[in-house]
Design a protein that fits this description.
Layout: H1 3-6, H2 35-50, E1 54-55, E2 61-63, H3 64-72, H4 76-79, E3 84-87, E4 91-95, H5 100-109, E5 118-127, E6 139-148, H6 153-169, E7 175-180, H7 187-199, H8 207-215, H9 217-220, H10 229-233, H11 244-259, E8 265-266, E9 278-285, E10 294-300, H12 304-307, E11 315-321, H13 322-331, E12 343-347, H14 350-365, E13 370-372, H15 379-389, E14 393-397, H16 399-404, E15 406-411, E16 417-421, H17 425-429
Parallel strand pairs: 1-5, 7-8, 12-13, 12-14
Antiparallel strand pairs: 2-4, 3-4, 5-6, 6-11, 7-9, 9-10, 10-11, 14-15, 15-16
Helix pairs in contact: 2-6, 6-11
Bound molecules: histidyl-adenosine monophosphate.
The site of histidyl-adenosine monophosphate has 27 residues, from strand 6, strand 10, strand 11 and helix 13.
Length: 433
Amino acid sequence: MRRDRLTPLGPSSTYAGVKINGVKGMNDVLPARVAPWQEMERVAREVFALYGYREVRTPSVEQYALFARGVGEMTDIVNKEMYVFEDKGEEMLALRPEGTAGAVRAFIEHGCHVEGPQKWFYLGPMFRRERPQKGRYRQFHQIGCEVFGVAEPACDAEQIAMLDDYLARLGVRAEVKLNSVGDAACRPAYLDDLRTWLGARRAALCPDCNERIDRNPLRVLDCKVESCQPVLREAPRLVDRLCEPCRAHFEAVKGMLGDLGVTFEVDPRLVRGLDYYVRTAYEFASGALGAQSAVAGGGRYDGLVETLGGPPTPGIGFALGQERLALIMEALGRKAPVERPAVFFIAADEAGAREAMRRAAALRKAGIACDLDPRGGKLKGQFRQAERAGARFALVLGGDEVASGRARLKDMETREESPVALDELAARLTGGR
Ligand code: HAM
């Protein structure tokens, strides 16, 4: 480890002028690529509101114990991937690897259960120290939804249908995979049997699977290694071993999804990387993503609020990976609308530059996007800036135009020019005369 990485407060003059890069696996989204992000966030707010979800904002940092207890100490997320640090010797904190535990903490801390069922959504960065690859980063962003206080299968079906509706509005088709992971009544006996069954086949399974057999046998079913597949295909299935209430819940969810016109596939090997799930587990997958095919995942977590010290409260939620959704939208060639200036002022001289400032301020106050190049300089250079900005029109202002109150509006696409009275500019740009 290089010392300059460990001593951020070292003598900065030593390193003056040395380039400092971003952190591995943590990305910038530059303005040229931000349009799909804005689009997915705008549509999320719009669609979630239609279904009665309201936004919650919680911190990016929480107590380590929240995730250890909430997500599960044995999960890879907590055990291997979490950024944990001691805050000046006072407490163990962690960068949140996901949003559910924090939402549940806030729900409990503010006594929200007294208000009856709640539907929340959130957007924000999450952190997992995974090996970066396409679609997998160390800082990534989620759009998530949580419902508290409803145990009925109608809630599961409505939420899955909402996510389907949301993606459809973005022009994205994803495969809906559904499973039931049982509950405390039926899962333990199944896990014992699965452990024994897998234990007898250790030689045919990869090292990762072998490591997981004792720790988290359900995760073995999720292994993607080719040589493990023949064994795992034959593994006992939890869907065949559900207790009566879990089976009835699963059947009801499937039936209601049918009523809502959502196409789905039951995937008995779908397991999730977090410990809190019971009954419904689901994922939305897209072939456009390659290995990291899940664009969203979620499920029911009826015991979680209690585990974290709250009153017994059922819950269900999902989170969608924004980087992955952006990749899909880009792969589909979806062009999100970009805000372009209606006009770009070009200053021919000092008087024109001052007038351009005044006119631009007035247009902006009227809600019309416009721009200018405060550096002034040659007309050619300013026209190039107008081009880069994607302006619809350019308008040259100099002493003559200021004196006469008239100028020429140049259409940047057709290159045609037409006269305009400066006082009528706003009306011209908004379609009036
Ligand atoms: P998750 O399946 O761990 O669930 O993550 C949800 C989604 O976040 C994934 O489907 C994926 O799109 C994205 N994602 C996860 N890890 C990464 C990564 N390293 N890089 C890029 N994208 C990633 C949860 O986080 C649960 N909290 C979901 C939930 C909410 N369950 C109930 N309520």
